[in-house]
Amino acid sequence: MKNPFQWEHPKAFAYNETIRKRIIGYEYLFALMADDICMHMPDAAQVIVVGAGGGQELSTLMPLLRSAHFIAVDPSDNMLALAKHRLMTENIAGEVTYITGELADYEGVADIVTCHLVLHFLQQPTQKAQLLKQIAQHVKIGGYVYLSSINGDIDDPIFKQQLDAWGRFAIRNGVKPHHWEAFVQSFGDTLMPITTESLYELCETAGLRVAQQYFRAYGIEAYRLERVR
Do residues 221 and 213 touch, judged by C-beta distance below 8 A? Predict the structure, then answer.
């Protein structure tokens, strides 16, 4: 099947518009994260954003953490360009280092690492485990990781029912039916979610404790994790 998620394609520049139509509660994922950070780590000095393309995390957090240094990591030049353009159009200034590549290309550690809607794109459980391990290595002990992903057993009839209900939302929100069908067909091909239980196990192995689940809508879940070792 043709990959509908071609980040280097020119259509990637429409990401910020299309993602809101497709992901239920997209704005809340970040608004609730911001509220949580204001409660638990308002003086964070360094923040690493994994999958920073589009600029949602930067747009949300930079006005709140004005003295923080942000490291924006994304493998796509197009997506990082979109993040830069968004900050410019929203007149948001701050200290940002942009890294085109992977998290492993950066050696520093941070108070906070965010990784939203990335994990389910990694094909193998070993790749997911490796990313979580790298994330843990890049956050200070006692620091926080804000993680969201699509979780579930794609062969479970309940998950398929959730997709049907999710599709009603997406189509009502402006997603064309054939685009939604392509999204559904990508599960098991481009999108490889794991169960919530498996995610917990991978986090624990990486040294990350699930401190709070702060969002859930169908298969979309968001967590605050704490590095404990």
Answer: yes
